[in-house]
């Protein structure tokens, strides 16, 4: 018999992706795997991306640094994790009372946002691609009811980032706690409230057992976008058709991650409601004070941070146009459909 | 000198896509070109799709038949164009008071909708892929104000499909007119009202010059999805990695077409408002009667059409869960943001 020829089926490109997320946040984490599988299928395994959970290579919040330094070729993360470096990172994810999921996609793909963010990321040696969205998040779990803005004074709430800054201006004392530390702190009363994501992820952590008041909306995250951040030098080395495969797969992960949350959250919400969870809308005076505080933060930041100002000036115009349009057909139809019950 | 070797760079697969849309509907039509360009770039030109506008190969509303018969390999169309064959086609696009754009994507990708629709399309020798969405459409242009449901009686309105059936039950006389025939009919008063798409497409046709009342929301199209329909035998012949390239590119076209409308509609709306257009919300009694009529149509159809019933039973459960969830974080935040003005 004749020996089969030894054809080397070695992949020509092998990348490592570090995720900012643990596998337990399966919907967000899964966007990295969606990208990796699709790119491999398209290229017949010649372009392989191996996905690592937060902590396997570097901690979740060091994903950007790992890409910038070339430790890995890319990461899956949320821009607003890096507002400590520069508040302008938030435009790649979400800002309080900013853009919804669809508006963020419109801004990135057709509203000039992609170019602005790529200009910004360039100094970090990174090229960004939208890579998923959770949609508007819930407002979090409270041990006691918040009847008005006055009840916020002194409230210890787990909420990081610019959202935390907004709550601080309302009188709260924001806390930064990792996911696993929230439940015991809520249970003991070390904190009074905590925000996480939405019904699907919140239900798994069991917050409803120790804090029954589930508030909406999470006004600091109207449509938080996730991102794939790729090391610029590694990107430049890719053959053009691998770049094309990556871009298409990233866009697919962008829409399918949102769709997955949109399919899972309603089922989780129904389960939560079987556990005597009290659904409550934030009092209007709190929302108004929150929006005023958020917009003041943006103006103050723009006055002292040129990178923020450059993006903010365009983003603000875009937000204003989007909000005027979405207030018509989209929101009026939704408001009507969801409240008018037909047997 | 040595002659360069004659390497045949022939594409191995060449497909023709017939669009149901004219090039003038550039955003919708463009989804076909997005797909074609991306597939070609990924495969280094080895899988080419040539896009033809409505009428170049077959008329726009015969796109499905052309794919079914193998005249072309695929089309870009809207399922609800074929409700004359079976009302169940509407689930692949939109039904009055049904799913929004995000809910439709959730249903298709993660809610069981894809499998249900593929089972349905199988008898037409077709495999379907979501291929764009316009988002909630506007409610159309009216020569006179509609102050309540009573004003609908005898109203001649250009509105096709199930939306037209709903309006008929409200007392209107639905008309079917092609895009180019609407303006003169509105101008002469042959019709009293006409719906088209949304600000971006409506503005180009100039309806505001002959009918100043611009109503919202287009309750019969909360999130109309476009589809790529591929001949099943042609699909089966594709190499797996070409199938993968196609699927990723179709998903990309699905999100980017929506994003493009979401970026363009606000600008067009602002232009329209400079032309003394009166923006009006449909009276609540009209919306309520419309929803009741729509739901009655679905129940009646389910009682006599097994294909419709099979999909409707699942779709209805899904819609109910989605509407309960979207009524919280998403819609409450949007309603607040769009109405609370901060200087």
UniProtKB/TrEMBL annotation, chains A, B:
Q: Which InterPro entries match?
A: DctP_fam, SBP_TakP-like, TakP/all3028, TAT_signal, TRAP_DctP_sf
Q: What organism does this protein naturally occur in? A: Chitinimonas lacunae
Which is one Pfam family of this protein? DctP
Mind telling me what this protein is named? Answer: TRAP transporter substrate-binding protein
Q: Does the keyword Manganese apply?
A: no
Q: List the Gene3D superfamilies hit by this protein, alphabetically.
A: Bacterial extracellular solute-binding protein, family 7, Periplasmic binding protein-like II
Q: What are the alphabetically sorted keywords of the record?
A: Signal
Q: Which domain of life is it from?
A: Bacteria
